[in-house]
Amino acid sequence: MWRVLVFVMLLGCGSYEITQPETSSAVMPEMHGNRTIRTEEQFRRYVVGQTLMSDGVEMTIGADYSVNGRYRGKPFSGSWEFRKGLFCHSATRDVHSMDRQCFRVTQHEREIMLTLMPE
Question: Which of 37, 73, 82, 103 is packed most tightly, with the most Cβ within 10 A?
């Protein structure tokens, strides 16, 4: 099972668990034991299609560039893109739009870490 640590995320902070992990033999640059996911192809291999869960948040990153889930029992939806080496997404919850945010994605063993970055 994959574990995702999210330092700052649209819906809150926490530790996320990904169901149905995918495996890959992709070679990515190493830095202090971390591999930075730098391309959309790598992001799709490790994250897309998975459901992230933690502390009242459940979110699925769709292959069709959709983001869907629930935050404290309330549904939200939005879209994502991978550009300039960052995972960016925006969402709407209860008819309120939430600001677009971008993250650097790194992998360490079976953990994925998202770090909020300026666009």
Answer: 37
Tell me the whole-structure pTM to 2 decimals: 0.68
Contacts made by residues 7-10, CB under 8 angstroms, sequence distance 24+: 7/113, 7/114, 7/115, 7/116, 8/101, 8/114, 8/115, 8/116, 9/57, 9/101, 9/103, 9/114, 9/116, 10/89, 10/90, 10/91, 10/98, 10/99, 10/101
Q: Where are the domains of the chain?
A: 2-23+32-111
Q: Express each pLDDT in 24-56 by its tens digit.
A: 333 334 445 789 999 999 999 989 998 877 778
Closest CA to 103 of 59, 70, 71: 59
